[in-house]
Amino acid sequence: MEQLFISAFITLFVVIDPPGCAPIYAGLTKGADAAQRRNMAIRASIIAFVILLVFALFGQDLLAALHIELDSFRIAGGLMLFWIAWEMVFEKRTQRREERAERATREHVEDVSVFPMAMPMLAGPGAIAAIMLLQNEADGLEESLVVMGALVAVLLLTMIALIAAGPLIRLLGDRVEAVITRLLGVLLAALAAQYVIDGLRGAFTL
Fold this sequence. Notes:
This protein is mainly alpha-helical and about 210 residues long. It has nine helices and no strands.
């Protein structure tokens, strides 16, 4: 059981990639205060867990019933992430937040917990495929619970990383933050392109 937990934990940690998601989250939540960033990080982690739990239990049947292939998730998620990346690189999100801040109250800060953080960043096609595969390979209820335990551990680490990323980046100052945000936007665009490429490759592989 210990080996199964370690194997599942490493697999999910690599796929979900908390260290990679954290700085992107910090860039997406620029303008939010500490409480709002914390709440969005908690919500994103919980929602991602629910999504992955549903796919772990019913993923195969759900996709088959809707006639949807996992490659379709990859392509759609990649296109959505590319739009977010484009806004990060050209500071469209920053401009929109500044305009909104002038007329909105504290409660109206843009909520990124559901999209793009929970889906497709945390519970993306890779994580969905990984949890479905791990559950299919689990033998019995006990091993299934071990896999779920590994998922919970990874998402807890992810939540902590998301909460800590914002303050660390903000300590660097606005100019450094702007450079980091644009750089992360480029990296996110590359990740989005990879999602689309993987989806197209899988869809057209005979």
